[in-house]
Design goal:
single chain, about 150 residues, alpha+beta, Beta-Lactamase, 6-stranded antiparallel beta sheet, 6 strands, globular, binds methionine sulfoxide
Length: about 150
């Protein structure tokens, strides 16, 4: 399935569910659809902390609460900008969750100019994310924005 089809499918999930269960469905769908997305989580901003919501992957992370400003996740929450990390071992901000992770992308979810959450994806493949993933995931974040605050 390509990005445009995935986008349509996600729009339908959001439209049809109408409750917070759509977040888990979206995470599950992304995990099943994109082979290089090895772990996917949605963090929600609660005050100055990112709190892990729905996630999908083979293992749970110990980083269920991350201060805004800390790690890749906290940096994206602070700046409101997407973080694309081709090699996590070269980024000193990186908070390690899984030994298998090689690359990561974090896309903030903004509502009315404020970061309300983010999509965090770890990949076991180095350099897994391209600008296509950035464009696609920023659209997904926009679709989610009004549903999570
Ligand atoms: N690697 C992230 C922490 C979250 S785990 O990837 C699930 C970071 O550096 O903020």
């Amino acid at each position: 399935m390509k990005y445009a089809q995935a986008e349509q499918k996600l729009a339908r999930i959001i439209e049809e569910s109408g409750t917070s269960s759509h977040l888990q469905q979206i995470v599950d769908f992304l995990y099943e659809t994109f082979d290089t997305y090895s772990w996917i989580g949605i963090y929600l901003v609660k005050g100055k902390t990112l709190v892990l919501g729905p996630w999908k992957g083979t293992q749970a992370t110990e980083h269920t609460r991350i201060p805004v400003g800390t790690g890749i996740c906290g940096s994206a929450a602070k700046s409101g900008k997407t973080e694309l990390i081709p090699d996590v071992n070269k980024d000193t901000r990186y908070l390690s969750c899984f030994v298998s992770t090689k690359s990561e992308i974090v896309v903030p979810i903004r509502f009315r100019g404020k970061v309300v959450g983010e999509i965090d994806i770890d990949s076991d493949v180095p350099h897994a994310f391209t600008t296509k993933d950035v464009v696609f995931l920023e659209k997904v974040a926009d679709m989610l924005a009004m549903h999570i605050c």
